[in-house]
Amino acid sequence: MLFMSNTKDDMIARLRKDILQLQGLADKHEKQEAAFSLGPLDNAFPNRVFPLSAVHEFICKDIQSEAATAGFIAGLLSTITKSNGVILWISNRRSIYPPALNSFGIEPSHIIFIDLKSEQQVAWCIEEALKSNCLAAVVGEIAEISFTSSRRLQLAVEQSKVTGLLIRRNPKNLVTASVSRWAINSISSELPGNMPGVGFPRWEVELLKIRNGKPGSWNMEWKAGEFHYPVQQEFMQEEHHAQSA
Q1: Are the C-beta atoms of 233 and 240 separated by less than 8 Å?
Q2: Which CATH number fits the domain that encloses residue 205?
Q3: CB atoms within 10 A of CB 141
Q4: The pLDDT of residue 196
Q5: What is the pTM of this model?
Q6: Considering the domain boundaries, does residue 18 fall inside one?
């Protein structure tokens, strides 16, 4: 019976892998070295790895969420750029202040900013950039994108292996072919001992949609060059102390 169970499990694992390959989310060996850990959030993703070579969209409802989203994306890019890849940031109204990237361990010179006049130009530039296999990632700030256009972007990254990150301001259309959809909002930071000053950036990270994964919500913090989960950690510590008592 144990042999039959193992055979069934192996068959299910192979079928899942085949489905991911058909959807452009294969667990490619050459990309595993560039993959990075997001801690508990990894459990939400297929293969338990943040999907590179895919298009992700971030929904922003106001200026505050735009700033929070730009910060969270900077944290993602911080690890992607460790492989010395080039990143394009394309927009007609840039939401990031380049020198601020230093706080995420990113040299602004590692990112090429392309500022255009219209969203039509932005859309064309994003698609062309995602076709280039010499880039590590493309960040595009664009409000509206049709399903057909988003499908072309996804097909492009499946060939080029580039990661696409779309910042969308108050979009009307949410029917897209993106692999994931996020909403990022800032939450209050904390300093030890109630000391004055500004703490490390913290966000409420909502994964609204993830293909073949599990949506959810997490509180996250950027500290010492990586993501942390301060609220969950504090809760776990309190629970442990309660059980010990």
Answers
A1: no
A2: 3.40.50.300
A3: 27
A4: 60
A5: 0.79
A6: no
